[in-house]
Amino acid sequence: MNSTSGADPADAVRVWRGLADTCVLLDGFHAIKHALRFGARVPAALTSDRAGVLALADELAPDVRQALEALLAPVDDERLRALVPRLHPTAVAALAERPSRDGNLEALGRLPRAAPVIVLDDPRNLGNAGAVIRLAAGFGATGVVTTGTLDPWHPTVVRGGAGLHFATAVERMEVAALPPGPVFALDAEGEDIRGLKLPDDAVLAFGSERSGLSAALRERADHLVSLPMRPQVSSYNLATSVGMTLFHWSAGSPPGAGGPPGPQA
Ligand SMILES: C[S@@+](CC[C@H](N)C(=O)[O-])C[C@H]1O[C@@H](n2cnc3c(N)ncnc32)[C@H](O)[C@@H]1O
């Protein structure tokens, strides 16, 4: 695969155009930083403020400074905005190769599993899906599976995920093909989560923003679980529900005893 590394601006733009249809857009410094940290292959990175981006790396992410220095091709702001219409304020964008579906399916299906898989059953809101991928990455979840029509690699989802699609396995699947493991489906009518320990091999399933869990998912569920909520409140936001559930799972293992990674040093 071609790369913009070391290319002059015109060549770098040509390489970008050749890759843009097949690669994932990483928009802004933080998305690129996360993708590099979690092993994404990044063949193209353009910036109209190379010095500013490297200064940010010095300040916030010295671990990726060298990689960025080798990658970043300078282009003028007008050219960059023509390629990336809603350019991030950090004036940098990159293209990453999407991880293979086969590799992700293998990671999602592997047992034993050290951390749950999150299932979003027919989610509708791209921002919610991105926020959930970010949560899954932070808690070290095995992956995020979506059912239904939403593409979890849609550019808006990738933007919401802050480049963390590369830190977990993200794929779309049918309910009938979900990864193995006991399914704990979250629903306001379920059993109170506070009385339950969620196992590491759990498949944690959440319903759509509009209509909740589908009939197919309810059928596949081993447990229906609720989050504490005062009467007269009908439901929580989807991503918020995932956050609470992952926190409950994490609280089941004391720090250092397996479970999710500890806080950043
Ligand atoms: C916005 S809610 C969906 C509300 C939808 N109108 C319904 O009928 O369920 C999206 C998802 O978040 C989860 N959720 C929201 N509030 C919850 C609660 N109190 N207990 C368990 N899950 C909840 C469920 O998985 C739900 O399907």
From TrEMBL:
Record keywords, A-Z: Methyltransferase, Transferase
Domain tRNA/rRNA methyltransferase SpoU type: 117-246
Keyword Translocase: no
InterPro entries linked: Alpha/beta_knot_MTases (IPR029028), rRNA_Methyltransferase (IPR051259), SpoU_MeTrfase (IPR001537), tRNA_m1G_MTases_N (IPR029026)
GO biological process, one term: RNA processing
GO molecular function terms listed in the Swiss-Prot or TrEMBL record: RNA binding; RNA methyltransferase activity
Pfam families: SpoU_methylase
Protein name per its UniProtKB record: TrmH family RNA methyltransferase
Lineage of the organism: Bacteria, Bacillati, Actinomycetota, Actinomycetes, Kitasatosporales
